[in-house]
Amino acid sequence: MKYFYHFLTFSLFGLLFSCNSSTEKDMGFREIKITETDIISFDEVVNEIEFIPFLIPEDSPLKLSANDPHLEIDDKIYFSTGDFRDASIHVFALNGKYEQTFKKQGDGPEEYSYLNGIDMIDDKLAIWDDQGTFKLYNKTNFDFEGVKKLAGLNIDFIPFYHSLGDRKWILVGDFDGNVDENNYYPVFYLLDEKSEEMKTLSAKARMVTSNLFEGQIDVMSDMSQILNFGASDTIYHFKNDSLRPWVKLNLADNNLPENEKLDPQDFFEKVVSTQAYNFNIGTALAANDIVRIGLFGIKKSANIYPDELSSFPIQHLYIHYPSMEFKVTKAFGAFGGKGYEKDGFFYETLYADDIQNYIESNYFGKYTAQLEAAIENLVDEEDPILLKYNIKVK
Fold this sequence. Notes:
The chain has helices at about 5-15, 20-25, 265-270, 350-360, 370-375, and strands at about 30-35, 40, 45-55, 70-75, 75-80, 90, 100, 120, 125-130, 135, 145-150, 160-165, 170, 185, 190, 195-200, 205, 215-220, 225-230, 235-240, 240-250, 280, 285, 290-295, 315-320, 325-330, 340, 345-350, 385-390. By secondary structure, it is mainly beta. Strands 2, 22, 23, 24, 25 and 26 form a 6-stranded mixed sheet that branches. Strands 1-21-20-19-18 form a 5-stranded mixed sheet, with no helix packed on it. Strands 3-29-28-27 form a 4-stranded antiparallel sheet. The two termini are about 40 Å apart.
């Protein structure tokens, strides 16, 4: 599962807007064509940016490993790598100053065995297990405060979830190896806990999706949702319990063919390493009505080196909702991960090795001086920096 994501990780990579009839017409299914000439520098699309150094005391044994972290930001920053050996949660002030570490990992009734996500439920810190259960803790002293288990669930493993409120959820189901007569399998499910009913949404995926991102969901300002999954040529819009196509991706007239989506085992060797085709990685993260989608290809890399993140041709597509105006930049950060957004800002964790590459390549352009100032404030130059930014597409 998630072969592409795991490869990157272990190689150190780690619609219908119904306010009025004219807007409904604008929200019709439309194609976006992206070519190499659309790729611009990151600093051209930034609206606001801040580099927040993680300030860990010199005498502290804490070292944040270079893995894509789970984040939750409230009045504090809650940070965990989710490592199965040590899924501790580290707490920082909003300025990055380290405060304390919690760990309730174990097999006891008040402990979590694994940490696959951090959330807030009713002002409690919620630890997600990918199987429909949250363990709830006081966000200040980490006292155990109960269990939240999704009612009516009939799938075993959930790589991603999104709460619609009123005890309704959109869930991403893990590929179980079964496909229909046309070699598709369902991606998204709508769960109503009150009735304990779960129904399949119409979007379907090919088998290769299970090696990319199996599905992600994020919310727009009108409380509708954008849904995406790996190798899909379509991005979907969900509103009023209805799922509709929103955007068709034309990736330089070289989208991954349908027949290549049927063979997940040789996908890396045949498609990724050769850069033969362009495809949608499957991420969907939204901040301030800008949707960020990860894309592979468009502009070929001279060479792909498995141990160098920057050598892979990954782009970030930023699409404004609902206008569909867009910008494209070379991706950065742990683009194999889920990412994080809060209050109109995207967040990414930058680690020391990558930071040096960004400086040498001038990736952040006119904002490089701000990054260098954040580095100067680090207690240990090996500690990471949290990037907070939002985007303009007009």
